[in-house]
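Let us walk through a complete example step by step. Step one is to write down the protein sequence. Step two is to encode the small molecule, magnesium ion, as a SMILES string so that its atoms and bonds are unambiguous. Step three, shown after the inputs, is the structure prediction itself.
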Amino acid sequence: MIRRLTGLVRPTFQYRAVEDINLQGWWEAGIRGMILDVDDTLTTHNSAIVAPAVQAWLRQAREMGFHCYIVSNNRSPEHIAGLSDRLELQALAKAGKPFPTGFLKALQDMALNSDQVVVIGDRLLTDIVGGSYLGMHTCLVAPVTTRPSAPKRVLYRFEGLLMRAGGARRKRY
Ligand SMILES: [Mg+2]
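Step three: the predicted structure of the complex.
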């Protein structure tokens, strides 16, 4: 039971940013799909701007054959639909992470097993816990925003403490 709980707060991978991810290594490890968070993972919160490096990384991932799928808790379906159109990715808004419904829909649409998929996000309690719970690989990234709001900083700090309690540590970049 305890091991199951600590496993939830231990990301499989940690990277500073999505564009630093070793795609070749993931492909060789049998990973074929990525479930992507949006806010503070691909963009700053509620922003429609995706940095050129992130766009190039997404393009490369898809050229290699990875399925990429956005699963976001963002409350604006229009905002997520806009990104989905521009990035040409399937997307789900108001996904209710960490609860399984959104993740399961993405897995079903991608027709992949959970152990072939990695969930990528900046938040431990939504992205990482939700992904681990369903047996997916998980990848924690540093938030895109370098100056998070005060409440967000408290949240990240709390999540850092939970990771430590689980025997892991949030990397600093
Ligand atoms: Mg996020």
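Step four is interpretation. The mean pLDDT is 96.
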